[in-house]
Amino acid sequence: MRRLAIVLSVAGVLAIATTRGSVNVPPAWGVLMVAAAAIGAALLVPQSWRRSAATGAALVAALASAHLLLRPGMPQVHDTDHVWGLWAYARAVRAGHPLPTWIPWIGAGMPLLGFYGPVSFLSSLPGVLLGLAPVAIWKLTMAQSSVLAALGALAGARLLGASRRGAAIAACALALSPWRLTVVDYRGALGEAVAFAWAPVVAAAAIAMCRQPSRRGGIWLALSVALLVPTHLITTFCLGVVLVPVLLVDALAMRGEAPASPFLRRFGLAAGTAALGAGLVAVWCVPALAESGATTLPMQTRENAYFVYAQHGLTVPDVAVRRAWDRLRPSLPRRDRAAGGEGEQMPFYAGAVVMALGLTAPWWSRSRRTWGLAAGAAIALAMAWAPVAGLATHLPLVDHVQFPWRFLSTAAVLAALAAGAGIGALLGDGVASWRGVLPAVAVPVLLLLDAAPYAGAAGWIPPYRGVTHWIHEADGTRRPVPVELPAGAMIRVGDLELPPDTTATPVELGWIAYVEWTTPAFYRPLLHARGPEDFGEAGISRFFLAGRERPIEIAARPYATLDGVDAGPFTRGVGRIELKPAVPERGAKLVVREQMFPGWRARVDGRDTPIGTAGLGFMTIDLPAGTHDVVMEYTQGTRPRRIGLAISVLSLGLGVWHRFAKRNGARP
Question: Which domains, ranges and CATH numbers included, belong to the chain?
Answer without folding.
Answer: 2-72+134-460 (no CATH), 465-553 (no CATH), 560-634 (2.60.40)
